[in-house]
Structures are given as structure tokens and as C-alpha cells.
Amino acid sequence: MSGIYIHVPFCKQACSYCDFYFVTRPQQKGNYVEALIQEIQSKKGSVFTQEAVNTLYFGGGTPSLLEASEVSRIMDALASTFKLRTEEVTFELNPDDVTAEYLADLKKVGVNRVSMGVQSFDANLLQFMNRTHTAEEALRCMHLLKDSGIDVYSVDLIYGNPGQTVEMLEADLEQLKQFDPPHISAYSLTIEPNTRLGKQVALGRLLPQEDEQVEKHFELVEKALSEMGIHRYEVSNFGKKGSEARHNSNYWEHENYLGLGPGAHSFWWDTDGRSAKRWSNEADLKKYLEQDFKTRPVDGEEMNLKELAEERIMLGLRTIKGVQLEELIVHYEYSLSEAQSQYLERMQKEGKAVLGKNIRLTSKGLRIADAITLDLLTVK
Could you report the per-residue pLDDT of 51-82, keeping only the tens digit for each? Predict the structure, then answer.
């Protein structure tokens, strides 16, 4: 098994852009930990415990709202249930939760990679995003991370915000340069319908950033990070050699993974390798706390080889490695049609794709990866 994802649903407040499942009821943390441990233990003797677990990922929500002692209890439950062979244990945190002692405690329980949600060092942008931390807290946390002794840390950055200028983004990138982080996740702001930003756009109170400006931001991020020796390996992820996120890479490569906690998603291949199932826990903390995990059936979406092949192409074309043609034939029994081959040849002539044993997109192509994938899978 490639990994286990644990969803920690607690947040102090709602970020204006976020559509992940979260609650602002921290008084339920203790009950959540008890329920999570029960869910973990319910997997004993199941198919999910027959494969070694290579990566763990604590996401959210805000995992850093958990006490270190609570994280330790969760880790103990995982170790007593699964075959842990963890090369990477990632823990998401917010700058306003971090102390040197907390980082040291995380390291003691096995965390060797942390992902910090900075998003920006600009006070106005942080307020616009409704983040709980200040720029000063983010800078303080960067110093703590650099001195923590944790193997790898990653910093989240959001660009393409309404009103964000190229100069504002340059200032954020210059701040990051001072710390020389090993990994950066840089996301173009996506405005989802059910978020605060989505509602403001629907009411006409907010105008999204112009596409041309977002493209300038994309180019600036790639150029600036490349100059720091931090190279793109997926549309939104940049890392120094050896610092790439193994857990996320396994998502893109269609490895088995198990999601635990309310709202967590899972993906699992059937034993014959000809189909797979994708499912998720209900995004409802109250129901999660009342759940009898031993009797809960695993209901989900059954995916056939054609559906899996198309998803593999979609995931793979977001990465620098792309997708191997042989892999599609051998593992998915999927061959490109004449129309698809001709479309890719056109993309190559336009400087958006490179064809060979792999199909992969260039930097120019990665900017519109989703559009290229849609065209490729629907071309007649």
C-alpha cells in the first residue's frame, strides 16, 4: 500500500477559498481521536493490513490543532494495526500553532516532513484569505522549521489572487528565497462555488484575477523557484532533488491508499488488477463520532480499466514524468487511437507536449494541463 491519509477536520476559522471538510468545534477533538483510533483498529485482519504502508499523511483541516500526545496515540494505533514501513510521515500545520517544542515532539513520534500553510507574507492578502496567522508568525515559523531538524519541510503559496500584483508575488518569493526551503506547493487560486469567495463572485462583489495575469504569476513562480534550485515536478509542486512528496506522488501513480477520518478518500485496486474502487467517509463529524466502524460496509465507485486508464492519463499529465505508453497498454489495456495520436503530435508541434516512450507536457503545456487532458480524452 502506498499510504494512509488521515483527515483532521478542525480549524479555528474558515479560509475564504477553502472547500475541504472542516468544523470549528475544537471541543470535539478528544472524541474525534477516540473515534479515529476505533476506525484504525477496525481494519485489523482486513485486506488493508496485508500490504506494507510506505507513507502517512496528516491533512485537514488543521492537524496542528492536535496535541502532540494525541498524535502519539494515533501513531501507536496505526503501528499496532498496519505494517508500517514508513519512508515519509507528513504533517500539515499552520504558523500560529507552531513552537519549537511542538516540532520536537512531532519529530519524536516519527514525523519527518511537515507542510506549512503560509499562502502569503502579505498582510492584506492574508486578511483577504481569512487566514488565522500573521506575516510575522509565518516568518517566525520559517525560522523554527529551518532549525527543527525535521528532514523535509514544504511551504504552501497561493498566487493569482484578485488584486495581487506581480510585485506582490515577487515579494513573497523573495521572502521564501531567504529560507531556501526544500519544497514548495504553489497553487493558483481556485474559486469554488460554496466558499466565501465563490459566493462573493456569484453576487458580483468580487472579480477573479484575469487569466493573463494568472499566467504571468505561473511563469514568475516557475522561474523564481527554478533559480533557487526548486524544480517543478507536478503542476503545483516544486522540490529540490530528493525532496519530492512521495505520498502525493503515489496518488498520481494510482497506488493503493486508505483514507481515515471524516471526509477522507480511499482508492484500492481489486486483486485481479482489472478494476478498482474509490470511496470516501461521509464528511460529517457528528455521524463519524457515532459510527460503528466494524459493521460499516465499504461502498464506493467501481472503476473499470478504461475509466482507470483515463484517470491515470489525467493524473500523469499533471506531472513532469507524464505517462508511459507501455504502462497504459500493459496495466490498463489502453492504446491511443489514431485521433489521439494526431492530437498529441499537434500539441508537440505547438511546444506543449513531448512524445516518446512517455507522453508528457512541457512547461507551456502544464499551464493548461486540464484542458489538454480533456481534449485528448474526447477527441474523435
Answer: 999 999 999 999 999 999 999 999 999 999 99
- HSE-up of residue 118 (Cα within 13 Å, Cβ side): 30
pTM reported for the whole predicted model: 0.94
Domain layout of the chain by residue ranges: 3-250, 305-380
Distance set, CA 331 to CA 40, 198, 318 (Å) = 31, 40, 19
Q: What CATH number should be reported for the domain whose range is 305-380? A: 1.10.10.920
Angular region, 61: left φ>0, alpha ψ -120 to 50, beta rest: left
295 has a pLDDT exceeding 80: no
> For the domain 3-250, what is the CATH code?
3.20.20.70
DSSP H or E segment with residue 117: strand 113-119
Q: Which percentage of the chain shows pLDDT scores above 90?
A: 85
Buried/exposed code over 141-162 (b: 16+ C-beta within 10 A; e: otherwise): bbebbeebebebbbbbbbbbbb
Give the residues across from 5 on adjacent strands.
57, 259
Please tell me the distance from the alpha carbon of residue 47 to that of residue 78, in angstroms, as a whole number. Answer: 15
pLDDT computed for residue 297 by the predictor:
63
Question: How many angstroms from the chain centroid is the CA of residue 108?
Answer: 24
Helix (H) / strand (E) containing 259: strand 257-260
Each residue's pLDDT tens digit, 212-221: 999 999 999 9
User: Helix 100-108 vs helix 68-81: angle between axes, to the nearest 10 degrees?
Assistant: 10
What is the signed CA dihedral for 118, 120, 126, 131, rounded to 10 degrees? -20
- Band (9; pLDDT cuts 50, 70, 90): very high
H/E stretch holding 32 = helix 29-41
Residue with cell 506549512: 116
Rounded to whole angstroms, how far apart are CA atoms 181 and 138?
13
Task: Give per-residue pLDDT as tens, 298-354.
Answer: 778 999 999 999 999 999 999 999 999 999 999 999 999 999 999 999 999 999 999
Smallest CA-to-CA distance from 118 within 138, 89, 141, 143 is with 138
> Cα 91 vs. chain centroid, distance in angstroms?
12
**How many other CB atoms are found less than 10 A from the CB of residue 318?**
18
